[in-house]
Design a protein that fits this description.
heterodimer, A: about 425 residues, alpha/beta, Rossmann fold, 6-stranded mixed sheet, 13 helices, about 40% helix, globular, B: about 290 residues, mainly alpha, two-stranded antiparallel ribbon, 12 helices, 2 strands, about 75% helix, about 5% strand, Peripla_BP_I (chain A), Leu-bd (chain A), signal (chain A), ABC transporter substrate-binding protein (chain A), transmembrane transporter activity (chain B)
Chain lengths: ~425, ~290
Amino acid sequence: MNTHFRSRTARGVAVVSALALTLTACGREGDGGGEGGASASPGITDESVTLGITTPLSGATAGPGTCTVAGVKAYFGAKNAEGGVEFGDGKTRTVDIRALDDTYDPQQAKANYDQLKNEVFAMTAGLGTPTNRAWRDAAIADEVPQVLVMTGDPLFSDTDESPWQLGFVPIYQNEGEAFGELLASSTEEHKVAILSQNDDYGEGYVEGFKSAIEGADNIEVVEELTYEATDTSVDAQLTELANSGADVFFNAMSVTPLMISALQKAQQLNWKPSWFLPSNTSSPGAILEPGGAAAYPGIYSVSFAKAPASPAFAQDEDVQAYLAALKEHGDYQDPPAFPHCQWSWMVGATLEQAFAEMTEPTRENFMEALRGIEGFQAPLMLEGTSVTTSEDGQPAVSTLNVQKFNGKGYDTVESFG
Amino acid sequence: MGTFIQLVVDGLSTGSVYAAIALAIVLVHQATGLINFAQGGMAVLAAYFAWWLTNQGLPLIVAILLSIVFSFALGAVVERWLMRRFERGDPDTAVVATIGLLTLITGIAGWLWTYNNQQFPSLFPLDTVSFLGVSVSIRSIGTTAVIVVAMILLQALFVGTKLGLALRAVAINPQSAAFSGLPVGRLLMVGWGLAAVLGAVAGALVAPQLTLTPGMLDNALVYALAAVILGGLTSPVGVVVAAWIIGVLENLAAVYVPFIGYDLKVAVPFILLFVVLIVRPQGLFGRKTVVRV
C-alpha cells in the first residue's frame, strides 16, 4: 500500500516535470520564431499562423457553438487549399484553427484559454458572454488578442476597458434599438408586452428598445415580465402577458426550446400579437416552423447575414461558395440551422482583412491592423450592413436590418405592419 | 378568474411532466430500495431511439412502442450487468453510480445525435379546447391522461398483484425473499425494466414540448425528485399529486405573491418540501417505516 502510494507520487512528480519542460520548450520556440524587425509572437511562423477558439461544442449551446468553429474553419480551409492567406509583410501563410470545448462553462473556458495561449497567435470567434468574460482579464494581462468573439456584451467593445478585445456581433442594445426605432416610426398606436431573460442579455435588449421608443407617443409598454434562463416553461408568464391585450410582443429570450413553446402557447391562448425575436433565437427552420409562427400577423427579427435557407439567396454566389466550403472544410454536413455559422465565416473574412494590413508578425501589430477596418462588406453580409472596427464602444458589426418572416425566410422591411 | 384557472391548468400540465419521471423513480425505489438519478437520462435515450426510428420512416406510434420494448431491455440490462454490483453494497455508492450513469448516458446521446435541439413529433395535435374562458391544449390533456393511467396501473401493480407483492418483498428484505423462493435477480431486472418503460413513455410525451436534447430532462429530474420526497417514496398516487401541487404552486406564487415573482418561483417547491418534511417526515402520502425490535 505504502510503496504503491510512493510510486504513484513519484510518477506524478515525473509527469509534472515533463510537462514543465515541454512548456519551457514551447515558450522558447515562440520567442525565437522571428527574423529581423520585431520578434514574432507565439503561434505565427513565416509559413503559418494558428488561431485558438474556446466555445461550447457539447451541452445545450452546442448547436450554435459548433457553428462558430465550422464557419471560420471552412473559410480558412478554402483559403489554405488555394495556398494560404497573404499578409501585409509580403508572406503567405496558411491558417490553422485549434478549437476546444468549454461546454458553456466559464471555468472550462479559462482552462482552455490557458492551454491555448502559448501556442496560438490570437483567440477568436468563441461563443458566450460568461465564458468569454471568464478569461478576459487574463487575456489583457497576457496581451493575447481576444477578438471577433460572439457576444453581445458591450464590455468587449469598450477600447479602454478591453484593449485586447473586440466583439463581433451587434451588442444586445443595438438589436433592441433597431426594433424600437421601427416601431416608433409606425403610424399606428401600439401596446407592447415585454418578456426578458433575467440577466445582462435580457436587460440589454430591453434597454436598447426603451431608449428607442422614448418620447414616441404612439407606443405604450403595458406589461413587463422576466424569466430565468434555466426555466423549463414560461406558460405562466405568457398567460399573464396575453391578458394585457398587447398587440406587439417583445420577447428577449435566448433559449431555443422556450422560444418554440412560447410561440405555441400564445396561439393556444388565442393571443396573436406581432413578435420581435432576437437574432439568435429566430431561425426559421429550428424555431419558427416548429413553433407554428405562421399564425401571427408578423414575426420580426434583426440580421446582418444572408440566410442560406432563404429562396432569395439560393442562387447567391457567396452563399454557394460558403455552403460548399462548410461541407468540405468545416466538418459541417447539414445546411446550418444557426446564423452563427455565417457569422463565423464573416469572422474569417474580417481576420483576412486585418492580416493583409499586418506589417509585423506580432500581436500588437495585428490589433492595430484589426482596429483599422472601415465599411468592409464581408461575404454573406446583407445590403446596408458592414464591418467597422474603428468606432469605440461598438462591436465590429453594429449595423442591422430589421426583417420580417415571410413563411420561409426573412425579408428586410423599412416600416412596421 | 380566467387567469387563475389558466394558471392552475398550465401548472397541472407542467406537473404531469414531473409526475412521469417521479413515477419511474418510485418504481425503481419500490423494487430495489434505490433512487435512480439516471431515470431521466434513460428516458431521454428512449426518446432519441424513437426519434431515430421515425427518421427511418416508421410511424410515430410504432416507433414509440419499439422504444418501449428497447427501454425494458435497457433497464433490465443496466440492472443485471451494472447496478447488481452496487445494490448489495453501501446505498450511497449505488446512488453515486446512478449519477455517473446519468452523465454517461447524456454523453453518449450527445455523441450519437449531437447536442442540437431535435424536433420530436407529437402524439397529440397542438389544437386547444376552451371552457370557462380557459384554453387547454389537447397535448396537455393527453399527457395528463396518460400519466393518470400509468399511475393507476402502477398502484394496482403494487397493491393488487403477486408481481407487485414480490417486488416489494425483494426491496424490503432481499434475503428473506430469496429464502422464500422468489427469483430475486429476475424480479430486480423486471423492476428496472418497468421503470425504464415508464421513462420511455414520459420521454415521448415531453420531447415535443421541450425539444429533444441530451439534457432535456435534467431540470425536470430535480422537480421529480422533489415530488418523490414530498409525495412519499412508497405511493404512486402521492407523487403524482405532489408533482401537480408543485406545478400549480409555482405558477400561482409567481403571479400572486409579488416578492416571489418569476425570479424566485423555482425555490417554491423546495420551501414547501422543507415545511412538509418537518411536519410529516414520511411525506404527504408515504408509509412510515416501522422497524421491529
